[in-house]
Amino acid sequence: MDILRKILEVKAQEVEEAKRREPLSAVRRRAEESPPTRPFLESLSAPGPEGVNVIAEIKRASPSKGTIRAGLDPRAYARAYQRAGAAALSVLTDERFFQGSFRDLQVAREAVEVPVLRKDFTIDEYQIYEARAVGADAVLLIVRAVPPDFLRDALSLCRELGLGALVEVHDEREMETALARGAPLIGVNNRDLTTFRTDIETSIRLRKQLPAGMPMVAESGIGGREDVERLLDAGIFNFLVGESLVRAPDPETALRSLLGTAAGSRF
Ligand SMILES: O=P(O)(O)OC[C@@H](O)[C@@H](O)c1c[nH]c2ccccc12
Predict the structure, then answer these.
(1) Active site residue 59
(2) pLDDT (tens digit per residue) in 148-163
(3) Which end of the chain is less congested by CB atoms within 10 angstroms, N or C?
(4) Active-site residue among 219, 243, 244, 257?
(5) Distance between CA atoms of residues 86 and 48, nearest Å
(6) d(CA 237, CA 160)
């Protein structure tokens, strides 16, 4: 069985357990009492001052790479990313496969002013209320992980709750589905979640299928400024970057280098 199926199977069990611990009605109440969200979609709709927007990710580990950075301090990373000029943050909340947590998301969000994406495998509306309740400003919806009808309902729930949504695709067919269900922002994952192969040409290829004027996010496998420049040439100005920033000796300098701004760090 491929890893995505395995993750989704475990996730379904986790969501059922969470519902037993705290019923939907209670999470819903917490979501409704949550302070207003920060503007995620708006911050990615046009290129930033340097012509580039980076969603900088906090990721301790992944199924393809194992541990990426043991003992990662989410507060220090969040602040370094913001100082360097990140447009938004992405924080993994999956525990079992990515060693993330709601705690990481809350700590990171409290440390900065930029919007924060809950990076997880969203398969149930319960998780969308949960995201809003813990303070996320946006959620990830992976087309390959859910039925198309769920996607439509999830997107309307996000709008209702004031949450942004990043709809992740990996091929032409998924892009079509995402657009047909009204995705406000498409993320093209350069990593194939079934084989782990990563190729930034995927973003360049799929960019051509995007309606004029609609922004997209190139996700995964962005190792340095050369990759950013190749994607900029293809008309892509939003980037979701994890591993290369988390592994760098100094995440602030690494992010400045992606953005093409001067070095200088207090990390
Ligand atoms: O670490 P990278 O190669 O820079 O990739 C970041 C991000 O795109 C990746 O973490 C990701 C993209 N889609 C996901 C879905 C679930 C978990 C993780 C992901």
Answers:
(1) yes
(2) 999 999 999 999 999 9
(3) N
(4) 219
(5) 10
(6) 28
SS3 72: coil
Distance CA 116, CA 240 (A): 12
Of 216, 195, 246, the closest CA to residue 92 belongs to: 246
CA distance 7 to 187: 20
25 assigned to active site: no
Long-range contacts at 8-17 (CB < 8 A, ≥ 24 apart): 8/121, 8/123, 8/145, 10/96, 10/97, 11/94, 11/120, 11/121, 11/123, 12/123, 12/124, 14/96, 15/123, 15/124, 15/126, 15/127
The total of other beta-carbon atoms located within 10 Å of residue 264's CB is: 10
ipTM summary value: 0.98
* Chain segment 78-88, per-residue pLDDT in tens: 999 999 999 99
Distances (CA, A) of 161 to 28, 233, 262: 10, 36, 38
For 189, list phi and psi in degrees, rounded to 5. Answer: -85, 115
Contact between residue 255 and residue 78 where contact means Cβ atoms under 8 Å apart: no
Sign, CA dihedral 84-73-126-195, equals positive
Q: Which residues contact 193 (CB under 8 A, 6 or more apart)?
A: 3, 4, 142, 144, 170
With a Cβ cut-off of 6 Å, ligand 1 is lined by 57, 59, 119, 168, 189, 219-222, 240-244
What atom of ligand 1 comes closest to residue 65's alpha carbon?
1
CATH numeric code, 3-34+44-259: 3.20.20.70
pTM (predicted TM-score): 0.97
